[in-house]
Structure formats: structure tokens, C-alpha cells
Amino acid sequence: MGWRSRVTGAAVGLFSHAPDPLVSTFDYPGDPGLFGPESVTWRIMSDCSTFIGGVRALLVQAAHPEVAAGVGDHSSYREDPLGRLSRTAAYVTATAYGSLPEVDGAVGMVQRLHGPVSGTSHRGRAYSAADPAMAAWVHNALVDSFLVAHQTYGPAPLSDADADAYVAEQVRLGTKMGAAPLPDTADSLHRWIVDHPSLGASPAGADAMRFLSGPPLDSMVRVAYRVIHDAAAATVPAEVREPLGIEVPRGAVARGRVLVRLLRAALGYSPAWAAALERCGEERPAGVRFRNTPGTTR
Hints:
By secondary structure, the protein is an all-alpha fold. It has 14 helices and two strands. The two termini are 22 Å apart. The chain has one domain. It is globular, with a radius of gyration of 18 Å. The chain has a two-stranded antiparallel sheet. Residues 293-298 have low confidence and may be disordered.
């Protein structure tokens, strides 16, 4: 087995602990979903830099004590980390590339799971996953993280106009999720995060940081994950790193860029993008190699 096959097998294995979110996507021919073939979202979400963006989002989310408490009190991430990873990836894939019924199904599933998530944080503040402000922290952290990861580790940085277009596109998803407020430009999104009044240290945030620094993974995957984790941490703004106590190893960005290039060479671009283009009757872009793994569209 060649190195590309080994890398592909390891990557697919990490995300195979939940049903394929686009298994029925060809039942909706011509449906562009929430974004469509001309969107910036489809381009950003197709690249391996999203691996770093996903980890960065988890780090940023942990800096909000009430969000961290909700995750710590109600999530199965410690007992079933790969299951939670796969379910999160399925949500991201379905909402980015799915038809509108698939988008609505993914959003509805998350909202049903979040319905019982409520409690009190260590600092005595009530939290509820149904709170638009909490939903906004989770959603906006994810959007900002995928954008920053693409700008830092993607094949080519987006123009300012395209970066703003991506953030504005993601407002559509945030609205469906009941999140508010939803900044609609890259700069306003960044400022909203770094100036957020709820930023702070917490026991639940510290637990999440410890887990994210060394989750239970196979040895080969663990080495690559550590590079991804450090590359993600290196892009977290200082205002967010400080309450989390994040220290960034020297050379983290350089190692992250090398790893993403290797992953891109092995995996190509997301087969979910290829499936969505086919569903919409669009040609695949010339010169773009997609990963075609039997039995999955992720």
C-alpha cells in the first residue's frame, strides 16, 4: 500500500464514525443548497486546511466559560471522541454541500441535541445552547477559524472581497441555527471574537484544552494531529490564547503548512464538493483532483 493510500485510509477512518451526511444527495438534482457552486464556502470547505480550522474552532470555543461548561457537562467527547468528531464533520459537510433538505436535516438534528443543554457555569452564570448568544459564539468561532486556516494554510489566500463574501454567506447558516449576532465581514467577525466580553478561563475550558492537546489516537495519526493542533493554536489571537494559557511552539505555522501540503497531495480536495457539483449539474474544475473513496462523500 502506497503512502497516499495509507494517509487516505487514516483520514477517512477518523471521520467514519457517523452516517454519511450526503448519502441521499442525488435525490435532490439541481438543488444548490445553502451556498451553491459559485460560493466561496464551497471553495474553502473543499481543502485540507479545514482540518486545522476545525481544531482551531474548538480551541476558540473553549475560551467562553459558559460554552465550555455546556460542552463539559453534556458532551460525550471524552468517552467517544471519534464519534463526536465524525458527527461534527457530518454537520459541517451537510450544511456546506448538502441540498436544502439535507441542510435543514442537519440543523434540526443539532438543535434537537442541543435542546436539553443547559446549566450553570463555574462563575454562576446560566447557560443554554438555545441562547442565540451562545449559538453565535460556537458558529462565529467556526466561521472565523475556517477562514483563518484557509488564509494561513490554504492553497492561496482569498482576496479581502472573497473573505467578506464567505463570512456573509455563513450568516445564512447562522440564521438557521438561531444564532445572533452574526457579523457579516471578516474584520467585524475578528473584532467580535477578540473583544467579546465573555472571554475567560474556566475549569471546563481547561479540561477541553487538556483533551485537545492529546486525544486518544493511533500513533501515526497522533503525530500528525499534534502538528495540526499546534498549527491551529498559532493562529488563535493573543486575546483568546491568554485565558486559555496556550503556548505556541516555534515553527508551528511552518510545520502546519508542510503537513497540509502533504495531506492535499494525498487526499486531493473534498469528494463532498465533487458530489455537490454533480448534483447541481456542474462540471468539476479543470486540474482539481478529488478524493474518490468508495462508500463516502466526505
